[in-house]
Amino acid sequence: MEFQVEIVRLDDRGRGIGYLNGKIVFVEDALPQELVRVKMTREKKKYCEAKVVERLVTSKERVIPECRYYGTCGGCNLMHLSYSKQLEYKKKKGIQLFQKFAGVELEDVEIISSEPFYYRNKVVVHVEHGKMGYYQKESHQFVEIDHCLLLHPKINQLFTELKGASFLNSVENIMIRTFQDGLETQIVFYPQENLDHEEIIHRIKHLVTSIYVDHTCIYGNDEILEKIGDRNYLVRPESFFQVNTKTTKKLYDQVKEKLEPSEKDVVLDLYCGAGTIGLYIAPYIKHVYGVEIVKEAVMSAKKNQEINRTRNIEFYVGDTKTILGEFHLQANKVIVDPPRSGLDQKTKEYLLKLVPERIIYVSCDPVTLTRDIKDLSSKYELKTITFVDMFPNTEHVECVCLLNRR
Which phi and psi (to 5°) does residue 155 adopt? Predict the structure, then answer.
């Protein structure tokens, strides 16, 4: 059965919201001020989900997506909205989430823009029957992809080079990461069965810096090198690194600005990955302690310390809550950049006990961020927040918050 629904706003996943007989309806690919005829795809007690059958009134902000896979693969979900309005939406969404989950009223909030296309330096693609692609949103329905508008051109070039390769029939997933605008590229094949290493090397060695099969480097260097500002970073396949290199510098500059570094500062850098943020601010402070659970990332962090000739930083490998409890690291300022799940309870308890003068919280998930800010609110006040659009054409946004000790 089909129904007419007027879309009144977007939810925090970028879906249109309307109402039908008093019940909320979430509609994919629908914008405010649109009147759409929809077909229900899921009906629950308190809400419904639907897809557009016909657009009766179209929003002035709607644009024609440039990607031929849009609406089929699960990579993007906002490409039908003009980029300026994407920024407005993400800013408004962030403000509303802070009000709803942290009880914080935000007024003058900045959002930093990015290049909307060809910005991703990393991708993981699935391989089925020798073809590369993505899955449809919230499914395992395979969609073959030979060009993605979010990926750096070097990655798309590798898609073209690999297409039709016989060894892909033995591969389950492929990770590709490219740095320095395509000058250094790392590719990892995750096989289902044994691969012919010589065939792989012969086919793509002219395009890449290193080739891995699982955790073994079969060609080139173990790490590839990226530069942000005057800092150099070696990164292994297992190491976390921001996927939008150009906007990462803007993000790190925000961290530095909110930190207000001085030569007397001792900074605790939690979830430090390959040491990127800690090394970025190290020249301006007395000392940095970096903590990271991924052993390979800490290996890269220590190499990054060497190549940047930075002496005032040391790294600890292990779970954050375990390292903090064991070593009782002391600092007057703290930077945290946790995974999407946010801070664990033990780490929050440690921060409340340590009581540094300020915490810089970097997050890609506003919901867990607001939860943690609320949990720290007995001793910390949110002073400023900046949204950084690291992921154009998706609903995701990065946040950089300054929390000051009360």
Answer: -70, -40
Residue whose token pair is 């979430």: 26
Same domain, yes or no, for 203 and 102?
A: no
270 domain residue, yes or no: yes
Stated as kind and residue range, the H or E segment containing 250 is helix 245-259
Q: In 323-357, which ranges are E strands?
A: 333-336
Does 79 fall in a domain? Answer: no
Residues 206 and 259 in one domain: no
CA-to-CA distance for 363 and 360, rounded, in angstroms? 10
- Mark whether 105 and 131 lie in a shared domain: no
Q: Is it the case that residue 175 has pLDDT exceeding 90? A: yes
CA-closest candidate to residue 288, choices 249, 256, 319: 256
Q: Dig out the tokens for 200 from the structure.
A: 């792989």
pLDDT band at 240 (very low <50, low <70, confident <90, very high): confident
Residue 67 included in any domain: no
Sheet holding 110-112, edge to edge: 110-112, 380-388, 398-405, 358-363, 333-336, 266-270, 287-292, 313-317
pLDDT at 135 over 90: yes
Cα 20–chain centre separation: 35
Average pLDDT, the chain: 95
Beta strand pairing call for 380-388 and 110-112 = parallel
Residue 219 shares a structural domain with residue 148: yes
257 and 379 within one domain: yes
pLDDT in tens, 53-93: 999 999 999 999 999 999 888 889 999 999 999 999 999 99
In angstroms, the Cα distances linking 75 to 64, 68, 92, 144, 188 are 16, 12, 22, 12, 20
Q: What is the residue range of 305's domain?
A: 91-115+244-405
Catalytic positions are 364
Rounded CA-CA distance 276/270 in Å is 11
The answer to whether the pTM exceeds 0.85 is: yes
Handedness of CA 227, 292, 395, 110 (dihedral sign): negative
Is 262 buried (19+), middle (13-18) or exposed (0-12) by CB count in 10 A?
A: exposed
